[in-house]
Amino acid sequence: MIRKSAVLCAAAAWAAAASMSAHAAVALPAYNIDTSQITVSGLSSGGFMANQLGYAYSATFKGVGVFAGGPYMCAGHSNYTACMYNATVSASMLSTMQADLNNWSGTSIDNKSNVAAQKIYMFVGSSDYTVGPNPMNAARTQYTNNGVPAANLEFVQRASTAHVFPTDFDSTGNNSCSSSASPYISNCGYDGAKAALTKFYGMLAARNNTPAAANYIEFNQSAFTSNPGMAATGWLYVPASCASGTQCKLHVALHGCQQNVATIGDKFVKNTGYTRWADTNNIVVLFPQTKVDSTSRATSASGSLANPNGCWDWIGWYGSNFAQKAGTQQAAIKAMVDRLASGAGSGGGGGGGGGTLAAPTNVATSNATASSMSIGWSAVGGAASYNVYRNSSKVNASAVTATSYSDTGLAASTTYSWTVRAVDGGGAEGAVSSPASGTTLAGSTPATCFTASNYAHTTAGRAYQSGGYALANGSNQNMGLWNVFVTTTLKQTAPNHYVIGTCP
After folding, report:
1. Torsions phi, psi for 218 (to 5 deg)
2. What is the mean pLDDT of residues 14-35?
3. Nearest alpha carbon to residue 100 among 88, 108, 89, 92
4. Which of 128, 191, 313, 407 is catalytic?
5. Which residues pair with 34 in a beta bridge?
6. CA dihedral sign, ordered 488, 492, 493, 495
């Protein structure tokens, strides 16, 4: 998951990546998507991310597949090592995570009541010592605690299986099923992609073992995010039927650490089996991509760490809101889903509108202040009004009839992303625009820092105690043990909001 000593052959990795890039990246297309059939799955850090997306956007994702992942917000409160390496996740830890779900429900995340209706597929190997059965069992308990009935939850634990994505066919470069090694894809005599997709969509038509090369599309991922942990391009598999206008399902498949295209080439995209089943079952598959980020960054509860293996953010590298809708990687993936599900005919819930209006163009930001941003766009023919979305969440309470909008209540020195949809006279939204990002100005009041023992921080009201640890108010960052011996510097960035750090 977050291994420090991965040794990769640079030339081989470059050649593998180059084989996936025969054509220039294109703008992410829009298709006719049944928005009641949008699902997500992932392995390892991708499994943690799939879990996060499922909770944060529970109104969108109707099925969640976790291959060797763990419970929601585990590393938001504990060092990441307490959430993997087959560590036992205690009932007290789960209770702390549940408090986040309860407190954020309907605001920072979609209403948690949606989770009870999701279909959940879980897979772990008995010989997986990277994540392991214990964190997976904790994730299963968390789903059960949030109302997922037994009939909707499938939990598979396979003997003699390590930390791998399981298939039932051989592919060049695969590692042994009993070995946790690159590319972490193995013929284990078990078709994981089929099992997950069957759980979500029911009985499947026979797979096509030779999907057409032309159906793989490299798209411009940077249009959706400038996150330093995400690559400039992502990948998409579109069956010919979906490209021709048939209403299709949408599945998001998330690779694990050391599994992006830059590291292992097309192996996760082509050798996991997702596209073989997608081709004959009208399923568009989105493969978002991470990239290596060697900059050491403060995390929620694991200290300062780099991301040298291109993992998805499940520990807070890119903000304490990493598991919420506003989390930068989460919001980027949701924006990609919304774009894909914005084609003519899309509908059914979750991701896109059912209207036929074109996407607004020339969306741009301007007039930034410390707490507001102006968003403008070109008019769309036939539009009665417009809706504005910040980080994939609608921000206008009433219809916007002009071609500009002032978004207020923003945090200082923060980068946001906005998209716009036109709305016809019947209230149906059209296609989503390309995103426009903007950064608010710094606040007029400089940050103030406080250095004290963790006990003193809690008595002063800058932090609170939970499970024997001190957590910063506002950011909920884990400061370490709650006692008079551990000293931490907290920086106040807003009223009653503190982060671990120092002042200039």
Report:
1. -90, 125
2. 71
3. 108
4. 128
5. 347
6. positive
Q: Which regions of the chain carry the CATH code 2.60.40.10?
A: 364-439
Place of tokens 């995570």: 97
pLDDT at 397: 84
Q: Length of the chain, please? A: 504
Nearest Cα residue to 72 out of 124, 165, 143: 143
**In the chain, count of helices (H) and strands (E)?**
12, 26
Q: Is 128 a catalytic residue?
A: yes
Is 255 one of the annotated active-site residues of the chain?
A: no
- Nearest in space to 423 (alpha carbons), one of 386, 448, 455, 392: 386
Q: Which of 45, 110, 163, 255 is catalytic?
A: 163
163 belongs to the catalytic site: yes
Fold type of domain 364-439: Immunoglobulin-like (2.60.40)
373-425 pLDDT per residue, tens: 999 999 988 889 999 988 767 889 888 999 999 999 888 888 888 889 888 88
| Mean model confidence pLDDT for the chain | 90
Residue 181 has pLDDT above 90, yes or no: yes
Catalytic residue among 34, 41, 44, 182: 44
Q: Are 471 and 479 in contact (CB under 8 A)?
A: yes
